[in-house]
Amino acid sequence: MTLVPALKTFETDLLSKFGHVSTWVFDLDNTLYPSDSGLWPQINQRVTLYLAALTGLDGLSARALQRYYYHRHGTTLRGLVEESAIDPTPFLEFVHDVDRSGLSRDAPLAREIERLPGRRLIFTNGSRDHALRTVAELGLDGLFEDAFDIVASGLVPKPAAPAYDAFFDRYGVDPASAAMFEDLAKNLQTPKARGMTTTLVAPRADQRDDRDAADGEGSGAGYVDFVTDDLAGFLRRVNDRLVAPAHKPSRPNRPAPPSPGDRRRRSRPLRGARGLRA
Ligand SMILES: [Mg+2]
Fold first, then answer.
1. Contact 258, 264 (CB under 8 A)
2. In a domain, 53, yes or no
3. Which of 27, 67, 161, 270 could form a disulfide with 31 if both were Cys (CB 3.0 to 4.6 A apart)?
4. Cα(152)–Cα(122) distance, rounded to whole angstroms?
5. Is pLDDT of 271 > 50?
6. Last residue of a domain, one of 76, 95, 114
7. How far, in Å, is the centroid of ligand 1 from the Cα of 277?
8. pLDDT of residue 232
9. CA dist., res. 148 & res. 153, Å (int)
10. What residues flank ion ligand 1 with Cβ within 5 A?
11. Which of 73, 95, 117 is the C-terminal boundary of a domain?
């Protein structure tokens, strides 16, 4: 897949779109790992299993219910909470109890995320524990300040606008100086409207896409600034345009200590995530 801007303007666009960015926000699933890694189908299947056990439906009917919830409420969990008032904790634990051994450590991506000038955060519709375990498997642990999850957003998922506002408020992020990386175009609409620079992370043309068929749509939307099928390569070009050359080892950016009355709620960086594993 080619990048949306013509190549002759690409380097200029990188500076104008990312030169002011001080907070880098990443979706987790199918963004920080490839869509054909086999992880997402496991989560999807476990959502179906949970629904089947909860409702007594057969597999096909449970999958149909899952799709209904997804399209009506944004996530199955939101649908279950809205329509059946379930406890979200067992659901989140069950659906994220997956085998992550198919994921590979992504050294190029780790290197480029570490080079980014500013704060780095994960914003996921999944659980924080899932984010911790997944970034550890990818070799990305220790690179993010925190992971904002579906519980932190009050169970309101992206792309609902209140989820983004809760995220901005929690970390004191000014969206006008932030960038968002996502595999779902629809999740970039509100970030763009709030002033963020938006990048859609799409599968390669030859890559299996295990997501919902509609999830591959929207790459040409006006609220998508860039499209890439190689996140590490894209970030390398951004970093090369913005910061020191790659051969110079860079230090992790450390957030400034909060001032009195600062509304930012800083959590421990996502270090030592492996310690959470059984
Ligand atoms: Mg995703």
1. yes
2. yes
3. 27
4. 12
5. no
6. 95
7. 22
8. 97
9. 7
10. 27, 29-31, 183
11. 95
